[in-house]
Design brief:
Layout lengths: L3 H15 L6 H7 L5 H12 L3 H13 L1
């Protein structure tokens, strides 16, 4: 089982990658070490309370307002 600290690190790195222009969520998931989108979405939401796409929308909205 992967430790909580490793999972948090992966999600933190995924958030950084999601802010990069042109990054695809599927590619971010793979680079963060997830084999499939369901696992990535589930873990991202568990530690962030929102999905990766919601995170990206909020970040874009924040930076453009």
């Amino acid at each position: 089982m992967i430790s909580r600290n490793v999972l948090l690190y992966r999600i933190r790195k995924a958030k950084e990658m999601l802010l990069e222009p042109g990054s695809r969520i599927q590619d971010v998931a793979r680079k963060a070490g997830y084999q499939n989108m369901n696992s990535f979405n589930r873990m991202f939401k568990k530690f962030s309370d929102i999905t990766p796409s919601e995170f990206r929308k909020q970040a874009v909205s924040f930076h453009t307002s």
